[in-house]
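User: Can you fold this complex?
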Amino acid sequence: MTAPATTEKILPRVEFDAVVCKGCGLCIEACPEHIVEFAEVFNHRGVHPTRLMEDTLEKCTACGNCAVVCPDGAVTVENLRKHLRYGKSPLRCGEMHYCPGCDEGTVHELLAEVIGDLGIRDVTVGVASVGCTVFAYRYIDIDWQQAAHGRATSVAWGIECQHPELRVFTLQGDGDLAGIGIGETFHAAARGDPTVVIFLNNAIYGMTGGQLAPTTMMGQVTATSPAGRSREVHGYPITMTEALAMQRGCSFAVRATVHDAPAIRKTKKYIRQAFMNQEKNRSLSVVEILSSCPSGWKLEPIDAHKYLMQELVAAYKPGVIKEPPGGMPR
Amino acid sequence: MTAAAAVGALEATKDAAAPGSDDGPVLLKGCEAIAEAAIRAGVDAYFAYPITPQTDIPEYLAEHMPPLGKTFTQANSEISAINMVYGAAGAGLRVMTSSSSPGISLKQEGISYIAGAELPCVIVNVMRGGPGLGTVYGSQEDYWQSVKGGGHGGYRMPVMAPATVQECADLTMLCFRLADLYRTPTLLCADGTLGQMWENVRFKPMDNSGLPPKDWTTTGTRGKRKPNLVNSIIIEPPELEAHNRVLLAKAAKMEREEQRWESFRTEDAELVIVAFGLTGRIARTAVEALRAAGRKVGLLRPISLFPFPTDGFRPLAKKLRRYLVVEMNGGQMVEDVKRTLFDLGCLDPVTFYGRLGGVIPTPEEIAEVVVREFAQGGAR
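Assistant: Here's the predicted assembly.
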C-alpha cells in the first residue's frame, strides 16, 4: 500500500542528550522558534541540561541550529522530510574536556564532518598543539600526533614530507600559532607546506586561565592586562592570517567566526575549501576561526558569544583574505 | 672527493640490500662521513639549521639527498628542525638532525618529547666549547648534557662517542640501528675537531636485521587499523609512572646489552687513562709513548657514553691501579668513572686532567701528567 499524498507535516526527530549536555545554553539562544529551555533537574555535571519544551515539536522547523551550535554534540535533529541530519559526526569520539560553551568542540565537529564528507579519514593525520587543543586527539577518530607548544606546523611538515598521500592538518590556538610558534608558522607559509592550518583565535590564553595573547585586542582585559591591553605595556595585537597570506607559499587564507549557526555553517564551508585547496594547490591553507573563551573571558557562554560577535568580529573582520589561484575551491 | 662520495652514495642506495658490499676506502671529513653513513643507512629525511662546526653535514646532505628522492629541509631554527624530526619519526621515517652545542641546547625540549613519545631518530652533536656562544673550536663540554638527559623529565638515550672518522661512520649507522631497535632517540656525540678531520673511511653495510615492525606510526589508518597516536602527554600520574617505568626498563636493557668501549694495554697497567672521543685518541698516543719508555700505562676509552661501559672497568677493578681521567672539559665523565669504580667495590684513586674552552691537550702534555702521577706515588 503506497502512502497517501498528504500535506500533513512530517515531524522532525529532536534529541537532547541530558548526560552529555554541559548546560551552556547556546542552543536556547540559537533556536528561532524559542522552544528550547533548561530542564529543572540537574545532570551528573551539576548543570541544568537543555531540552525541547513540552508539546512544541510541532513548532520545530528542523533548521538544525540547536545542533549546529552545540559544541558537545549533545543535540541531534533529523529533518525526516528532507532526509537531513544535524548532530554529532560519526568520526567524533570521546567526551570533551572543554568548558561549557567553548567553541573548540564546535570546530572539532566541523573538522570531523569535513573529513567524513570528503572521504579522507583513512589518510588524514591531525596535529594537536599545546593549549586547550592538547587533547584534540581524543575527539576525532583518526591518526594524530601531539606537538610541543608552537611547533605544530614543523611536526606537520615532518609527517607529510615523504608522504604526499597524507592529508595533514594542525589545530592551533593563538598563543601556539602567533606567540611561541610564530616562526614555525611563518616558515610553513614561506616553504609552502601542504598543511591545513586551523587557527583558533579567541584572543586569550585559555588553558592557563585567561592571560594576554598575541591576538588580545587593544583595551581587552585579561589576567595579565588587568587594566586592558595598552600600547605602552603590551604593544599591539598581531594580525597573523594577513601576514601568512602575504607569503607565496600560502595559497588560501580566510578568517571565519563561530558566533552563531550561520557563521558556523560558513566556517564549515571554509574548512572544506581549505582541505580541497590542500589537494589542489599543495601549499599552505589557513583558516583562522574567531572563537569564544567563556572561562578565560569570565563571561557566561551566551554573553561570550555576544562579545565574540560584537568585539572580535568587529576587530578582526572575517572574510576571504587570500583566494587560491583559479578562485575559491568548490 | 665530494663527487666520488656522491657516486658512492648513489651506488650504496642502489645496492642497499647487497650484504657485505665493500666499497674501497674514501677520504672524508668526520662530518661528511656522518652524512654519508646516514645516506647509506637509508635516512629518509634530514632537518637542521646551520651552525659551526657541523655545517658540512647539512651541506653534504643538501647535495646528495634530494637526487635520491629524500627530504632535506633547512629549518628556520634548531627548535623547528627537531620538531620536524618528531613528526617524521612519528610517520615512520628514518630521520636525522645535526647541530653543535648551542643548537643542541635549543633542541632539548624536542628531544625530551621524542624520548617521551618513544620515537626513533639520530641526533648528531658536533660539540664546541661553551657555555653560551663559547667558541667554534671542538670541545667535550656537553658530556653531562648528553648522558644525564639534557632536556626535562629524566629520560635516557644511547650516546655514542667516535674517536676516528671511521667511527663517525660506523657509529652513525649503529645509532640508526639502536634507534629502531629500542624506539628511542640516539645521540652521536662527536667534537668539532673530529668533524673537521680528514681520514680514510670504509663504509660497512647497514645492519637492519631483527628490527621490530613500525606498527605505531601515523600514516593514515588506510581503513585497515584503529587510529595511532604519537604523544608524550600522559596526564594521570599512575599512568605516567607506568610509562616511565617502560622507558626505564628500556634504559636498563641498553645498559645490559649496548655497552661499548676500547681497552688498550690495560691488562698489566698500573695507571689507566680513561678518555673518550678525541681525547681518547690523543691519550692512546700518550700511552704508546709511555709504554715505549717502560711505563705500565693503559687506556680505557668509553665509546658508549650511555650506557656507560661499566663492564670495561670490571676486570680492571680486581687489581689495584690508579686512574687518570682526561677530558676537554672541567671534569664531567670523571664523575661516572668514580661512581662506576665505587659500584664495583673499587676505591682506587681517580684523578682528573682537563683542558677547557676548546684547548686540545697534546700527547706530551698527557704523558707529563702521567709521569707526575707516578712520581707522586700510588702507581708503582
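The first strand of chain B starts at residue 26 and ends at 29. Chain B touches chain A through 40 residues (CB under 8 Å).
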